[in-house]
Design brief:
By secondary structure, this protein is mainly α. It has helices at about 1-25, 30-45, 50-55, 65-90. It is rod-shaped and about 85 Å long.
Length: about 90
Amino acid sequence: MIGITRIRTQTHKVDLEVDRIKRETIPADESLRDMLAVQAIFNAALDGVDHKLAGDVAGMDSATAIADRLTLATNAVRELVADNIVTYARTLDR
């Protein structure tokens, strides 16, 4: 009897652990949807940056000024992407 009780207890513990893992796991199709959404956010943030920066730095002859302009542009993209990812995350039902 003790052996059977021990097996049942271990089985119950395993079942509880499996249930916990299932609750914490995000299905692959939801993960793919989220990754595609983040990709779209990055794409939208980067659209046109190359042409705008080319125009901005075309007349500059100082490497420091160009580096400063590139830093401003990359920081703006980072901020936009971060804000849009947060906005997207708030739409999720998880």
